[in-house]
């Protein structure tokens, strides 16, 4: 979870691409995935995702995200297969339509999730936020919410780890196999975590105000996000993906 | 009581490691672990507590291998007071907070016993049972955390920078409490502490660490007087030990202001006579 | 210059004043340490200088605080922060960005510092604070001491006249604590920044601060040169403030020999005093 949103520095074309283009590319992949029902197109999109991961120099990460999603997908797949009653029965209660629909749903999930995770690997959140404000004219307050939320994820995890450790030290057994028992144990932890988070939010707001939160305008950003050839290529690819998804039946 | 046999530990994600630690701590000792940040002090106390399990070697507490002991079993033996009480406190009243740790270790069937022990601790620390922990000051919250750690009467008490963020009076109160516990109940105390004055006042033995290894092990006074060792571990001895050491001769062994000033006044007196 | 005039502040819902009738003048270029037991009002005082009290904290505010002649109650927090930079006790919550460079950029961008100047100011702050090598690191990968330095650098980049710090070494080990104070000394001496620091570690204050204010129950109990304040050990201990052992030693030595022994604030001075007595 922690490593999933972590930026990995690099100098690949994807790193250099304008953050807005990256959002466009991500969204195009998602839209294409929802427009098509063709399994081959979906498979192509999945391969495309993984290739992007490789191009970003984050192949291992892309595959590990893929692996992580795989378990969830498998569960979803079985669930779909068991519940879809339409179509011709192949064996037991499994129908052909069930299999096809389940495969499409699972592939779509993979295709959509991968780039969403990957974009954070190749882009700093502050760049996404700044570019959104500069190029897309998103109000700064929204961008700020996004960046601080991401900023506090590692801290939240650190705090959670510390709390679990403190509680383990006094004899609370988190290594229980029973999921419900474990949830019941984690629940009391929410109190200290919530209190420390709320306390921090107030202080963070003040810290931002003190350093001129209210003065910030669209032009304030120091870094400029230009469009280059990579961006042009990405825009063309995005268009091609969507058109392909619509045209291929 | 505590026996480390060539214990090594390395974090899977990298970070500070400890290697080849061997030491014995007997029942009733008051031991401080010294060293600069990243020396491996906190890792060492977590290994003693069983929060971390050695990657190689063995850590025995009360004859039990920490790697093979259940969490609740270990929590009966070893209490751990962390730097930050807010990670521990999770109940709405002081009474519930103290009882929470007891329930985790004794089990819910022992309600009668838990109530009695909670009352005992509330009286001992002069807390009001219905007080909300989060309305208390940091020092008081640290005392609540200490009370609930001590509730199960652990044979070993581990303190990881227990006085961080406390003022002088709060710090003294916590430390005096632990001192009494060590002297009257024979609780073994192992403490990580950056304040050398506190170490000098309360601990009797010190383990010095640097770069994940044990540099020295001995009585606190001797450790502090070893200037070469102190420098190697990037530590600054307590002021009076520094002063006494530099005056040398008969004065070198004084380690509190009272004794040292007495010796010097006597010498001045003799010279005048 | 910082002027507090009969400042009284009571947090909303509290049953006593956090600060009571405080009058204090801190001249430009001063290095003032504030010490006192928990709940004495140290943080409130620190926040009052930067205008966070009363602007971002609810409560009853009486009296006046002026920095560089501006009344903090009538000046926007954003405008005040061009003069006063405040480092919070919980430095974690103060850092807004995920990357060191962005954290420094934040204030510079917002205050509309010209683009040509931004790089220069950023390099200056990073180098002065000694974290140039950390420029592209993520905050999550830094140690406590390094995060503290990032917070300070992000303020130094804005070039405030006054720097206020609330227990900057609370969670740090002795050597990182000293590094922070050495840094404050440099900023104070070389760039004439006024430094006001709340600190529990009396030995650090003895070594680095010029003047000391002792706070208790919302009032200033002692104010003066460090040595002067440490002259009354019994009084300080009654308030709940620890004294360096060297000062206790010098006072005991004076008592026992009946000779005047100057207040010693560090080991060097104590050794010298002892040698003089022994002869």
Question: Could you characterize the architecture of this molecule?
Answer:
The complex is a heterotrimer of chains A (about 250), B (about 270) and C (about 280). Chain A is an all-alpha fold and about 250 residues long. Chain A has 2 domains: about 5-130 and about 225-245, no CATH class; about 140-215, no CATH class. Chain A has helices spanning about 15, 20-35, 40-55, 60-85, 95-120, 125-135, 140-170, 180-185, 190-210, 230-245; strands at about 90, 95. In chain A, strands 1-2 form a two-stranded antiparallel sheet. The two termini of chain A are about 35 Å apart. The mean pLDDT of chain A is about 85. With about 270 residues, chain B is of the alpha/beta class. Chain B is built from 11 helices and 10 strands. The longest helix of chain B is centred in the middle third of the chain and has 18 residues, at about 170-185. In chain C, helix 5 (about 100-110) packs parallel to helix 7 (about 145-155) and helix 12 runs parallel beside helix 13. Chain C has 13 helices and 10 strands. Chain C has about 280 residues and is an alpha/beta fold. In chain C, the strands form 2 sheets. In chain C, strands 6-7-8-3-9-10 form a 6-stranded mixed sheet, sandwiched between helices. In chain C, strands 2-1-4-5 form a 4-stranded antiparallel sheet. At the B-C interface, helix 6, helix 10 and helix 11 of B face helix 8, helix 12 and helix 13 of C.
């Amino acid at each position: 979870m922690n490593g999933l949103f972590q930026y990995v520095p690099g100098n690949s074309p994807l790193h250099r691409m304008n953050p807005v283009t990256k959002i466009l590319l991500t969204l195009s992949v998602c839209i294409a995935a929802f427009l098509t029902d063709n399994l081959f197109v979906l498979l192509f999109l999945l391969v495309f995702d993984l290739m992007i991961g490789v191009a970003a120099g984050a192949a291992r990460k892309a595959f590990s995200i893929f692996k992580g999603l795989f378990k969830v997908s498998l569960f979803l797949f079985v669930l779909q297969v068991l519940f879809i009653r339409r179509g011709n029965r192949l064996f037991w209660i499994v129908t052909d339509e069930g299999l096809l629909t389940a495969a499409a749903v699972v592939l779509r999930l993979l295709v959509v999730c991968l780039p969403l995770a990957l974009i954070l690997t190749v882009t700093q959140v502050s760049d996404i936020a700044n570019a959104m404000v500069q190029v897309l004219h998103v109000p700064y307050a929204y961008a700020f919410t996004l960046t601080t939320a991401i900023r506090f994820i590692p801290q939240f995890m650190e705090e959670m780890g510390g709390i679990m450790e403190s509680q383990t030290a006094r004899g609370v057994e988190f290594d229980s196999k029973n999921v419900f028992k474990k949830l019941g144990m984690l629940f009391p932890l929410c109190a200290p975590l919530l209190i420390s988070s709320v306390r921090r939010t107030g202080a963070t707001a003040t810290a931002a105000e003190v350093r001129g939160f209210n003065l910030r305008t669209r032009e304030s950003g120091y870094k400029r996000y230009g469009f280059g050839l990579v961006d042009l290529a990405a825009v063309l690819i995005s268009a091609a993906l969507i058109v392909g998804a619509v045209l291929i039946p | 009581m505590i026996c480390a046999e060539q214990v090594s530990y390395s974090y899977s994600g990298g970070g500070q490691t400890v290697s080849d630690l061997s030491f014995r701590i007997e029942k009733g000792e008051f031991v401080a672990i010294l060293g600069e940040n990243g020396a491996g002090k906190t890792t060492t106390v977590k290994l003693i507590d069983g929060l971390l399990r050695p990657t190689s070697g063995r850590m025995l507490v009360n004859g039990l291998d920490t790697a093979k002991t259940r969490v609740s079993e270990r929590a009966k033996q070893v209490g751990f007071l962390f730097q930050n009480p807010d990670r521990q406190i999770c109940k709405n009243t002081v009474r519930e907070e103290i009882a929470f740790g007891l329930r985790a270790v004794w089990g819910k069937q022992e309600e009668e016993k838990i109530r009695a022990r909670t009352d005992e601790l509330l009286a001992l620390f002069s807390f009001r049972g219905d007080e909300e922990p989060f309305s208390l000051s940091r020092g008081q919250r640290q005392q609540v955390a200490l009370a609930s750690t001590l509730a199960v009467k652990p044979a070993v008490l581990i303190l990881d920078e227990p006085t961080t963020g406390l003022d002088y009076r709060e710090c003294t109160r916590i430390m005096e409490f632990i001192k009494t516990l060590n002297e009257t109940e024979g609780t073994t105390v192992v403490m990580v502490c950056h304040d050398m004055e506190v170490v000098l006042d309360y601990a009797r033995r010190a383990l010095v660490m640097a770069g994940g290894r044990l540099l020295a092990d001995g009585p606190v006074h001797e450790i502090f007087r070893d200037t070469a060792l102190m420098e190697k571990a990037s530590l600054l001895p307590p002021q009076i030990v520094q002063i006494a050491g530099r005056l040398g001769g008969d004065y070198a062994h004084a380690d509190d202001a009272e004794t040292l000033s007495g010796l010097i006044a006597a010498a001045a007196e003799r010279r005048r006579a | 210059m910082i002027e507090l005039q009969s400042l009284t502040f009571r947090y909303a819902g509290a049953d006593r004043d956090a600060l009571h009738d405080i009058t204090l003048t801190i001249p430009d270029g001063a290095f003032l340490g504030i010490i006192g037991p928990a709940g004495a009002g140290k943080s409130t005082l620190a926040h009052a200088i930067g205008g966070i009290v009363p602007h971002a904290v609810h409560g009853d505010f009486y009296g006046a605080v002026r920095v560089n002649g501006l009344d903090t109650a009538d000046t926007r927090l954003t405008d005040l922060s061009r003069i006063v930079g405040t480092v919070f006790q919980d430095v974690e919550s103060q850092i807004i960005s995920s990357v060191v460079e962005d954290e420094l950029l934040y204030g510079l961008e917002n205050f509309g510092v010209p683009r040509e100047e931004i790089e220069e100011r950023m390099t200056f702050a990073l180098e002065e604070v000694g974290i140039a090598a950390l420029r592209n690191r993520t905050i999550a990968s830094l140690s406590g001491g390094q995060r503290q330095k990032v917070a300070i650098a992000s303020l130094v980049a804005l070039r405030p006249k006054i720097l206020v710090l609330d227990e900057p070494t609370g969670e740090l080990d002795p050597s990182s604590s000293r590094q922070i104070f050495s840094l404050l000394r440099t900023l104070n001496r070389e760039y004439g920044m006024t430094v006001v620091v709340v600190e529990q570690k009396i030995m650090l204050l003895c070594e680095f601060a010029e003047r000391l204010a002792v706070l208790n129950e919302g009032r200033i109990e002692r104010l003066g040169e460090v040595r002067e304040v440490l002259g009354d050990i019994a009084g300080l201990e009654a308030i709940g403030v620890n004294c360096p052992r060297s000062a206790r030693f010098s006072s005991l030595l004076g008592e026992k020999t009946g000779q005047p022994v100057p207040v010693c604030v560090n080991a060097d001075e104590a050794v010298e005093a002892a040698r003089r007595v022994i002869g």
